[in-house]
TrEMBL record:
Residues 8-35 form the C2H2-type domain. The keyword Zinc-finger applies. Gene3D superfamilies: Classic Zinc Finger (3.30.160.60), Zn(2)-C6 fungal-type DNA-binding domain (4.10.240.10). It comes from Hortaea werneckii (Black yeast). The keyword Ribonucleoprotein does not apply. This is C2H2-type domain-containing protein. InterPro entries: XnlR_reg_dom, Zn2-C6_fun-type_DNA-bd_sf, Zn2Cys6_DnaBD, Znf_C2H2_sf, Znf_C2H2_type. Residues 100-134 have a biased composition (Low complexity). The lineage of its organism: Eukaryota, Fungi, Dikarya, Ascomycota, Pezizomycotina. It comes from the Eukaryota. CDD domains: fungal_TF_MHR (cd12148), GAL4 (cd00067). Residues 50-79 form the Zn(2)-C6 fungal-type domain. Residues 86-134 are annotated as: Disordered.
Amino acid sequence: MHTQEKPYQCQVCTKAFARADLLKRHTLGHSKDDPQSKPAVIQHSRVSQACEACAGLHLKCEEEKPCKRCTKKGIHCNFTANFGPPNEMTQSPQNPYMTQQSHHQQPQPQPQQQHQPQQSPSPFVNMHQQQQPLQSLPPMQQVMQPMHQAPQMHRQSVSGAQPNQLPAMQMNIAQTQPSPQQHMQMDSGMMAPQPSVGNNMFDYLRDKMMPPNQPNQANFMDYQGGPWTPRELFDFGVDTNMELNDLDLSFLDTYNNTNPFDLRTPSIGFPTTGSDIMPSFTSAPVPPLDTTALPKASVWRFRPLSKDSGSAEQANLSLPTPTSLDIDRRVTCEPLSQTSRDKILAMILSTCKPNSIPRAVACFPSISLLDSLFQFSLTSPGSHAKHWIHAPTLRAGQTRPEVLAAIIAAGAVLTPDASIRKVGYAIQEAIRTAVQVQVEEDNTLMRDLQIMQASLLQLKIGLWSGDSRKMELAEGFQQVLVTMARRGGFFRRGTYERIVPYAEDQGEVLENKWRQWIKQESRKRFALHLFRHDLEASVSLFSSPLISYAELYLPLPESEALWHSPTAGLWKATYMRSSGPRYERQPSLVDCIQDLDILATKDIWVDGRQASMAVLGAAWRMIWEYRQLDSSMKDYNTQWCNSNLLMASRHSELTKLLQCFRVSSVEDAKVTLILELLLMHLHMSLDDVHLFAGVEGEEEARRVYPSLVQWTKTTTSRQALWHAGQVVRAARNLRQGLICDFAAIAVYQASLAFWSYGIITRSTEPNHQMNTSVTAWLDAAEDPGIQRWIVNGKGNAAVHAWMGSPPTDGLAIVESPDDVVAACVQIMRRNHNDARAPPLVDNLINIMEGLRKAART
């Protein structure tokens, strides 16, 4: 492959040609010219690569470097190095970004190698090779090396004093130190001085956004083609080495013989048989994982590289031994069979690269291990699948392999073991690819409920994985699933009918009616759970919701008692026992918003928990609209719109709606947590808080700082902190291990509200004397002291905290943001065992610890 489009150049007139025979014919024309004639006018063709100075001024450059213009003016002749053909650099999906060579690396002209094919970098790069010299790295990895001679690329503002001076913070963050070689490469003279806040907090935030051991890699800012998602403070990728290492294999070697997690779950009425399953099971405790031997988690935003692909995790699909795992309880009517395992394996192999297939076939997890993960996914307290996938009628032989694999992957990522989680994430990647292929080959699958269920499961796994790549892919593919559900009529009432058993229904008639009811109920529950997933993704990623509450006219799901009935007879009996009044028309979400008393009814016709979650989803979309309107109108009052009156009226209506919901909704810890989080968002702009934290640079932080200072002096700010304290209280009441996924995001956002309030009030009131006597506990029940503090700011507000070693009950004053954030970190840590928290929780704790240290004075 040539390195130029026209590599054959005439030595007389410099005209270039694509083929050698064309050049030869052209040269013969020169030989026939009269030697006494005037020399031909040299038509200079377009140079293959212009230097930066000429390109910036749109001037013609030369092939020979340094060019004459730069030599004449005495400036450096910097230019971008070509690593391959021009069309390959601009069109190849493997190289989405053009790489720039720093001027301290001078190219070595090698004309004899122009016609040699350019070897593309391998997609599988060992993580231990990241410290190799820059010249030996592939092109995209050369971009990842620090370019310290380009200070103009830094996004941080280096201006002097600004009118909106931000509070200064001391910086003392423990992080991975660069190697001595990197210290030698650093040119401190090129770094411009920063203001006090930029010298501390912005350095911390920049470090959290950069890959490890690359502290000054600011040139990455130029390689982003659009807005970063999610917000930069929330961008991270954990466990970048997703391959199973020797430590993982040593533990997985025992996982087929001993159960790595507690699988003893209550049965729903399916007794086990001795021919299929052993009657008892005793597992030995798994030794704690030695985290010192595992790769350290690094925190940065996702930047696509050529080596990033779904195939990078295919090595995680295999286990070292084919031994079995016995279980003694069941929640489905039949276990996974060898045929089901083969179908799952065939589906996964269809997405694998050829070099990964032999190992996956030889060492794919056994049936027993897959079945145990399958059962765990449908019974774990942290799983939502049991609320919208009907376990009693789920037969592996009649279910698509994509759904079976998705349920297994969801169970794997819920386990408290890092090695098994890797297997789950690898299966999730295979499902994401396989579903796309299946739908492309057969478009009728766009209306298939099982395909949609598999898609939603893999989206949830990706969104809560703690890995920026998976999170971004999950955010992007969510739109596809929403479109499939909308076009499939999942949100419309006309696609559903009323199915009720009668006393005379018996035998096959009753069975068919029950099966039809299950299929219809599964569609309703899937639609509402997708609506809830849209809520959680929007709140977490600060993105617009994709589903409007006004289009959800489908009937609300019926009660959990009916949903979990294992047989048609029990389903009918539950109906017959109901004495409550029946609705002539099954209420919808829109009906619930208009009449919240529907949520307070205690009968089998409406699932109160599902309905409450749906109303919260609708409330969030109203709050999002309010926040967008407030952001665009808070600085302007036009003749046709009085923004103050409009926003005050809308705020009052939303507050009244949520307060009425508090009285009518079911008593559930997660419902309470989401309710308090939405009320917190209603009373503050967390988007402005992220800007103040520096995620978009110091200029944006200075822009929002005055409005945040004004906000901290209002009753609204103290009301927001009260709801943030209630989020902490609700999280503390969750069961062990349930502060994960969206609950972990809620605790993080609550801590960010405390952090911003404390930072700003401490800077605007430096002479404020903190009194240790607490008059308002924000994470306790409401009392007169709380109301006095909210209304007039009198007294001291605090949250409960565990301090000391061993930890004892203490307090954290809101004016001390580092203590409050530390209290939130302790809540998350106490909810999980050490070294067994999910990757998302580990990442959030890492960010919160950094914010706490940045806030210390």
